[in-house]
Amino acid sequence: MEIQFSKYQGTGNDFVIIDNRAGNIALSNAQIAFLCDRKFGVGSDGLMFLGTASGYDFSMDYYNADGTEGTMCGNGGRCLVQYANDHGIVKENYLFIAIDGPHEAKIESNGWIHLKMSDVNAVETGENFFVTNTGSPHYVQLVKDIREFDVVTNGKAIRYNERFKADGVNVNFIEFHNDHLFVRTYERGVENETYSCGTGVTAAAITTHLHKTGTHRVAIQTLGGALAVSFNNQGGGHFNHIWLQGPATFVYKGTIHLK
Known about the structure:
The protein is an alpha+beta fold. The chain folds into two domains: about 1-105 and about 250-255, Diaminopimelate Epimerase, Chain A, domain 1 (Roll); about 125-245, Diaminopimelate Epimerase, Chain A, domain 1 (Roll). The protein has helices at about 30-35, 75-85, 150-160, 200-205, and strands at about 1-10, 15-20, 45-50, 60-65, 95-100, 100-105, 115, 125, 130-135, 135-140, 170-175, 180-185, 190-195, 215-220, 225-235, 240-245, 250-255. The chain has a 17-stranded mixed β-sheet that branches. A hairpin with a 4-residue loop joins strand 11 and strand 12 (about 180-185). It is globular and about 50 Å long. The termini are close together.
């Protein structure tokens, strides 16, 4: 079977994207894992199908790099909006459906994609950490010397501890800088550090403003580049009008043979 694909990246978080608006492509978990494999396949942090859904401009189906069905992916959503735009779905404002519900999006004049994320209605606060769900579950921990921090070893230990090992959790390590927040993420499903994680930086931004009600915009730095998150803190762990903002870039397209 020959599959046509495109590859996009958002601050180094890269994705294989397949147009399935005709609804005639069904891949096994093993085939998806092969496509995402960096040595034997295309190589990516995840795979998405562009589909159709009544009442929406398109649908988003996201799969982790290990082939399992994923939860919401913020950078993936931004990349899929750019892909849709590049493939004939040209809108001033987009509305699409993902696993966690509807999402709005728009492409700004500077090329950044602004993606509206799901509201957050609960944040668990622990000693030097937070746990919340921004479309995917996230653990956020403050650290020092983040560039030298061992994200993989420490992230894996949290992701596979007794509390989280059954369903998994994405683990974010953060450090405050003068004018931005530096975020590094260990992602479940990839089981490694990624250059960027959209739902992760969203979790980092809102949890660091847990006691600051009102409207905020947080500049974010990741290994893959700059992002921003704007939101309204209603208090009591309730956040709405959450927008993930950043670039989404076409890398290349091709055809690959699948067994």
